[in-house]
Every structure is written in C-alpha cells, then in structure tokens.
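Entry: ABC transporter permease
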Amino acid sequence: MTSSVPQPVTVERAVSPPSAARRRRPPAKLLAAWGPALPLLLFTLATLVLPALRLLHDTFALPGGGYGFDHIVKVAGNPVDRQAIGGSLALGLTQATLATALGAPAAWLITRMRLGGRAFWLSLMNVASNFAGIGLAFGFVALIGSTGMLTLVLKGLFGIEDNPFPSLGSFNGMNIVYLYFNIPMFVLLTLPALSVLKDDWQEAAAVCHATRWQFWRYVGLPVLAPFVLAGWLLVFTWTIGVYAVAYAIGSSPSATKLITLQIGTTLETSVFGLGRAAVLSVLLMILAVGATALYRLSLRRAARWL
C-alpha cells in the first residue's frame, strides 16, 4: 500500500497593474501640491539657474563666434589670476581650520552650560556672525588700522613706531578680520549637532572602566567628526565667496589677491573682460558645488546617530 504525499498548493495572487488614474495625477492635485513652491522655484530659476547658465556660456563663448577654451587658457596663464586663485584657496583652508580649532571647543562648552549662560552666548554669537560687510571692515580699521584706536594706545604706552598689527589687506590681516564672523558662524552651525553626544554614553563608558581618553578616541570623536567636517566645509565655502569685507580692506595694490576681488576688478576696468570674470565665477561655482556635495555626504554619515 503506497501512501500519497500531499503536494504543496501554491496560491498565485493576481496583481492588477496600477490604473491610469493612479499613475497620472490630475492637474488640479499636481497644482495644489506644487503651487505653494512655485514662487520659490521661479525665484531660484531667475537668480541661480539662469545666471549660472549665462556664466557657463560666457566662459566658453568666443568673441568671433563659436565655443572654445580660450578664456580658460588666458586665466590659467595670467599670473595675477593664479595668485587670486591661490590666495582664495589658502584663505579658505586657513579660515576653516582656525574656525574649527577654536569654534569646536567653544561650541562644546556652550552645550554644557546652563540655560541662562547658553542663551547669552548664543545671542552674542548671532550678533557677531551677522555683523559683516563694510561695517565690520570699518570697525577693524578704526580699531587696529594704521591710525586705529588700539594702535595709537599701544604706540603711546610702549613707544612703538611701527604698527604692531599686520596690515588688514595682508594675508594675516584678513585672517584676523574673517575670524570675527567665521568662529561664531561655525559655533552656530555645529552647536545643534554636538548635542547628539549623550551623557549616558560617557557614563556607560565609565562603568566599563574606560578612561576619558578612550571614550573620546573610540566614541566621542568618531561621532562628532562628520558634524565638525560639515562645519569646516561650510566655513571654507563661505570664506572664498566673501566680497564686501575683502573689498573694503583689500583695495590697496599690495593686498592679498582673491578670486572675488579679481572678478570685481575685471568687471570695473574692462568691458571686454566678461569671459575672464566668467571663468573665475565658474571656478567659484565648482568649488562651492564640490564642498556642498562633500557636506551632504558628511551629514549623511552623521545622520545615523540622530
């Protein structure tokens, strides 16, 4: 007698294709979903997309018609333009590093303050980060310029003949001025992210007999590194694009050459130099887009701790 083994029964579920009504959203619903964003999208198109396309066109357009790399070759072969590119990159790297080295400990201390002290320092950082432009440049000229108040006081007290402070248009002078708003900006950018490091993690590490150095080496620094890197990238991008402060303190012939100043000088002195200014502007765009892409990658890595 043979026993029959029951065969498994497979049930096939018929999946109906989505209907046309589901695939295609009605125009009324599409307009209701995107309608509130249309003014912002149009503004972005008019102020960002179209100017960027025009800059790309002017970069490769030739005076006699057609397209080529003549403007790029001229900028690459111009010593002044090369100095401007190197000066902007050096200033951006220096500012981002100094702002990170000085701003990260300050942000960490502010997160550990009481509510009253934290509110005071946050308001102070907000004022300092937003006080830039011509007003900030005039303030530093009046303070540590060649005839500034602090300069005259030091000369009178110690009999110093030369200016004890570097020229504001020099590389060191620009670093002093830029740090005034870059450090507060770095603190404000990284302050919310630093709260991700919980006190419970330190207590758990202490229970496991981990030293403070071991906690920061294996837990604290790996967690905070993406946030700090994101702040570093934003300060770098902001620094290479500043124009008003650089124009106010870097108008002398011996001042540090920067990309933004070179663009302004080209537009002011030469009507036929639009291609040269366009090349430098596109270079700034490439640097900003690259830094923004790295910024998003850094935040994506840091988001797993949130």
